[in-house]
Amino acid sequence: MALPPGPQTPRFIRMLKLIGRPLEYLEDYYRIYGDIFAVGQNRPPAVVYVNHPDGIQQIFAAEPDRFRSGSGGQVLRFLLGDASLVVLDGDRHLQRRRLLMPPFHGERLRVYHQLICQITQRATASWQTGQTFQVRTLMQEITLSVILQAVFGLQEGDRFNQLKSLLSQMLDALGSPLAASLIFFPALQKDWGAWSPWGRFVRLKQQVDDLIYQEIRERKATGLSDRADILSLLMSARDEAGQPMQEVELRDELMTLLTAGHETTASALTWALYWVHALPEVETKLRAELQQLGDHPDPAEIARLPYLTAVCQETLRIYPITLTTGVRVLTTPMEILGYELPAGTVLFPCTYLVHHNPQLYPQSKQFRPDRFLERQFAPYEFLPFGGGLRYCIGAALALLEMKLVLATLLQHWQFGLIDHRPIKPVRRSLTMAPPAGLSMKVRPLIQQGTEEVLENVK
Ligand code: HEM
Q1: For the chain, what are the domain ranges?
Q2: 371, 315 contact by CB (below 8 A)
Q3: Which of 48, 144, 153, 285 has the most C-beta neighbours closer than 10 Å?
Q4: For 270-308, b where at least 16 C-beta lie within 10 A, e where not — what string?
Q5: How far apart are the C-alpha atoms of 353 and 323, rounded to whole Å?
Q6: Ligand 1 centroid from CA 133, angstroms
Q7: Are 382 and 355 in contact (CB under 8 A)?
Q8: Does residue 41 carry a pLDDT above 90?
Q9: Residue 457: its pLDDT value, please?
């Protein structure tokens, strides 16, 4: 069984590049090897990157038992726990997905419409004309509040604020490229006290765990009454044997939703606000579309706007938040793009390289939302949320949040970039994000010709 070609670079050197310059890592190998390549061939199991839509289609359409996906990395297991959806496989994974999916779909998302708009307005209520702000800090504040309320139904108060602050600190502790080395080199995961990077992460995680367990126990004691949040839904669910979820299972699922549910969306929103203000023609078009809805638009109408939707899709295309989907490990041999890959091969469908395939996305480095209005892309051509049985369960919520937050901000404010030099994504643990320091200045919205307003902001 021949593996596809790939580099013979020593693992350590390869990993340093993957951590520090991940886009170049992928682009350089793609230039040499093309649609499929294998790394780490001298140290099995080989890791195969699948970069062509046909190969991705094969993977997304394959029978569920062809892969183990849920094994996850050690850090994911440590953070999310062994009962998290992300690390489950087989029937347990499917059952848990069936349980978790309903509140994230269709009509059920309507309950979040007003919540998202209100949280956005509240987060910007104290803004003063001319002030500058860090875009990521704002977006993280908004997405964390949304997920805390949706998942726990928590109203603002002590526990809400504590969880918000601890979760942010915990994820920031793994955020820098240096701290990301902890994820890729397990030998560095040593607790050398509260000031060591791993020690700090471990202590913050313990505090978050404590708060989650307190909330679960209190909810048990007070009863669920008619609450509609996801914690209550999980607590009232019963398996085939009539058994409720155990506390540790509840904890793992809550931690999964809280962490998967806000960092990614905050990064996507930071990019979206950046792109809209880096390219005046995009801002003009978007503001014109929003203005057509009048002063008090219905959030459901906002969510249907075609150009706004295209701006969000293009944001997720050009710099996808995860460069690959989650991992798939073959349980049986499988032929992909002409190569017969042995059982045990680790597959990474490569979102970033497919999103820059010149046949699908001409001039792929240009931010051009119109490409999404000109043609439809198949799920294996546009895959910011992965696909198949592992498709992100929060995708619809994330897109809704992106549209409503962006629209709410633009309805009330004008923005200007502080620094007009182009920016590139940087590593943020397992994901890619805009640089943390990206800042903007703010002005209240002045109702006049859009061009004139834009001139004022610069
Ligand atoms: C822009 C925001 C988001 C992006 C880019 C994103 C991306 C992804 C990706 C790429 C995967 C792996 C899919 C695969 O391997 O095929 C995934 C899985 C997952 N996502 Fe998201 N996600 C986002 C928001 C959310 C939100 C808001 C939630 C929950 C509230 C969420 C919860 C999950 C969960 C639980 C999984 C694991 C699914 C499984 O293993 O069955 N994500 N996401």
Answers
A1: 11-457
A2: no
A3: 48
A4: bbbbbbbbbbeebbebbbebbeeeeeebebeebbebebb
A5: 8
A6: 28
A7: yes
A8: no
A9: 41
Counting Cβ atoms within 10 Å, is residue 243 exposed (0-12), middle (13-18) or buried (19+)?
exposed
pLDDT for 153:
82
State yes or no: pLDDT of 170 exceeds 90. no
Residues 267/401, Cβ–Cβ less than 8 Å: no
What CA–CA distance (Å, rounded) separates 350 from 230? Answer: 31
Alpha carbon dihedral 364, 355, 377, 341, in 10-degree steps, equals: 140
Name the superfamily (CATH) of residues 11-457: Cytochrome P450 (1.10.630.10)
Q: What CA–CA distance (Å, rounded) separates 163 from 212?
A: 8
Cβ < 6 Å from ligand 1: which residues? 85-86, 97, 147, 256-257, 260-261, 264-265, 268, 321-322, 325-326, 384-387, 390-394, 397-398
Residue ranges in 154-305 assigned as alpha helix (H) = 158-173, 177-184, 197-222, 230-236, 247-278, 280-291, 299-303
222 CA distance to ligand 1 centroid (A)?
Answer: 32
Residue identified by tokens 């295309």 is: 317
Q: 58-72, 269-283, 343-357: which has the minimum mean pLDDT? A: 58-72
The 8-class DSSP code of residue 102 comes to G
Least confident of 29-43, 75-89, 107-121, 221-235: 221-235
Q: What's the whole-number mean pLDDT along residues 191-202?
A: 83
DSSP 198-215: HHHHHHHHHHHHHHHHHH
Contacts of 189 (CB under 8 A, 6+ apart): 74, 75, 78, 182, 198
Angstrom CA distances, 396 to 7, 110, 255, stand at: 38, 11, 19
The larger pLDDT score, comparing residue 137 to residue 68, is at 137
Can you tell me the distance from the alpha carbon of 264 to that of 271, in angstroms, rounded to the nearest whole number? 11
